[in-house]
Structure formats: C-alpha cells, structure tokens
Design a protein that fits this description.
Layout (H helix, E strand, L loop, with lengths): L14 H10 L6 H22 L30 H7 L3 E2 L2 E2 L10
Antiparallel strand pairs: 1-2
C-alpha cells in the first residue's frame, strides 16, 4: 500500500474505501486496524475473483456439497408427559400453563 492511502498496484481495494465502509458501519478503526482490514478485504476480493473466473458451464448449482439424507426417526405418537409433573419443575406456572415474562410491547 502506498503512503497516500490509495490502492497499491494490483489491489482491488484501498484504505480510503475501507475507511468509508467503516464510517458507514459506524466503526472507529485505528491506523493499524485499517491497514489490517484493508489487506484482509483485498484477500477476500481476490479469492472471489478467482472463483468468478472459473468456467462453471455445465456444473449444476447445489445447496450442499454433500448429498444430505434425512436421518430422523419416524414420527410416532408416544406417551404424553404428566402435566402436573412438568409444571412442578417449571420456574413459574399459572392456570395449568407455564408463566413467562411479558414480551416487549405487551401489557402485563
């Protein structure tokens, strides 16, 4: 990186651009952080460019690199838990139900 804060030759991003993004994100970065993040973001952009340059014609898009098979057990009904026993272990219960703190915006 040159001393002016601009991009070094061949770099995809400069310290001025990283500083602008940091300001938009309301981050205060010191000079050492700015330099480190500039190099890290440049590495990420270089890697993205390497991937973008790949010839992917004929390659099927995928959501997961390994075929995933559902390995869950069958959903069969079982014996229900005893309500009184479960409620007895709860931190708070009221009228046969769990009592929980009010959710924001709800009246108590």
């Amino acid at each position: 990186m040159d001393d002016s804060g601009n991009r070094a030759p061949g770099s995809r991003i400069g310290t001025e651009e990283v500083a602008k993004v940091a300001a938009l994100a309301r981050l205060r970065l010191g000079d050492d952080e700015l330099e480190r993040f500039t190099h890290q973001l440049a590495d990420i952009l270089d890697h993205a460019a390497d991937i973008e340059a790949l010839d992917l014609d004929g390659v099927e898009p995928m959501a997961h690199p390994v075929r995933v098979v559902n390995v869950l057990r069958d959903d069969t009904p079982g014996e229900p838990l005893d309500r009184a026993e479960v409620l007895a272990q709860a931190p708070a219960a009221e009228d046969g139900q769990f009592r929980v703190p009010p959710v924001l915006g709800e009246a108590p």
